[in-house]
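fold-stage: in
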Amino acid sequence: MITAADEALLRRAVAIATRAVELGDAPYGSLLAAPDGTVLAEAHNTVRRDDDITAHPELKLARWAARELTPETAARTTMYTSCQPCGMCTGAIVRSGLGRVVYALATEHLVELNPDSGAWPTVPQEGPALFEEARRPVETYYRRG
C-alpha cells in the first residue's frame, strides 16, 4: 500500500527526472530511502551523457546499495523511481537485496508515451553447452567457501 510518505518521496524521484531533462539527460530519476524516510542516495539517467547503456538510475542505486549497505539495512530500504524498473535494473535490485520499489510510471505507460521504449527485440540464446567444462570453475569457486 502506497502511503502519503511514499507519495512525497515518489514526487522527489519525479523531480529528479525533471532535473535530468533540464540537464539534457533522459527523464528518469530515483532515490533510496531508509525506513524513516531519510534519503540515502539519489541518481538520474545518464545513458547519453556517459555513453553507457547501463547508466540507469535504478541500476546505479542498486550497485550503491550493494556496496554501501549491510544486507539488513538494504532489506529495509525502499527505492522510489519515476518509472518502473526495466529487466536489467530489476535484476540488480533483487541482487542488491533492496526490500521494496515504489514507481510512478508503469512500463506500459512509458511505451504509450514513447513507443520506441517497447521496441526492444529479444536476443536468441542457445545452450546449455559444454556443461562438464563450464561447471569446473563454478564448482571450484563454491567449494572453497
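fold-stage: in (second)
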Amino acid sequence: MNELNYSMVSEFVFLGISNSWTIQLGLLVFAIIFYMAVVLGNFFIVLAVISDSHLHSPMYFLLANLSIIDLGLSTVAVPKMIYDLFYEHKVISFMGCFTQIFFIHFMGGTEMVLLISMAFDRYIAICKPLHYLTIMNPKMCIVLLVSAWIIGFIHSVIQLAFVVNLPFCGPNEIDSFYCDLPRFIKLACMDTYKLEFIVTINSGFISIGSMFLLFISYIYILVTVQKHSSSGLSKALSTLSAHISVVILFFGPCIFFYVWPFPTLPVDKFLAIIDLIITPILNPSIYTFRNKDMKAAMKRLIGQIVNFEKIL
C-alpha cells in the first residue's frame, strides 16, 4: 500500500490563501515581519529565563518551554508559506506533508499539556503558597515537561497511524498553505468518514476537554482565593487573565478546525494564520508586558546586549 501511495501521488499542491498578487504581496510582508517577531520574541524570553537568576523559578521554566514550542509550531509551516508566496506553483512532497502534520500535532499536543501544567503551577502558587517550592520542585518541573513532550509525541503518532496507509490517487490539491489532517484525509481515494470521526475525537474533543478542564481550574482558583481573601481576588484575576488569554488563543482555532462540521475555507485560513503566526507572538507579548519581573529581566538583557556591542 505504501508503494502504491508514493507511485500514484508524489506531491501535493497548495492553493494558498488568495490568487490575488496584491494580497499575496501584503501577506508576504506580514508573514516575514511577524515570523521575525515570533523568532526574536520567543528567543529573548528563553534567553532571559536562562540568563537571569531572578527568573529561575518553576513558572518561568514552564514559560520558557512554552516559547520553545510556540517557535517550533510556527517554524513548521510559516517559512514554507513565505517561500511559496514567491511562486505561483506551490508544492510539497508526500513526505514533506506528512512531516508537517506530524510536527504540528506533536507541538500542538505538547503545548496543550504544558498549558495544563502551567495552570497547575498557578493553582499551587495561589492556593498553596506555603507549599509551592516543596511541590513545584525541580524534579516535578522536569516530570511535567517530559510528560508534555511524551504525550504530544504519542498524540501525533496515533493521528498518523490512522492515515499513513491511505491510498492517494488524485486530486492532490490542498486548499490551504500547509498540510493538516482534515483536508489531507479528504484527498484519499476511499470513504474517510470513520477516519474523520476518529480525528475529531482525537484532536477536537481532547481540545474541548482540555480547555474545559483549564477553565474549571481557573474558576476553582478564583473561588478559593475569594473565600480566603476578597482583596486577593483582583490580584489572582490579574495573574490568571494572561493564562486565560493564551488558552483562548490556542484552543479556539483548534476546536474550530477539528469539531466544526461545516467547511468554511476563508475562516479556516484566517484562523490558521492566527494559530501559526499571531498566537506564537502574542503569547510572549502577553506574558512579558503583564509581568513586571519579566519586563525587568528583558530590560537587563537588552542592556547587557547593548553594552556587549559597545565593547566590540
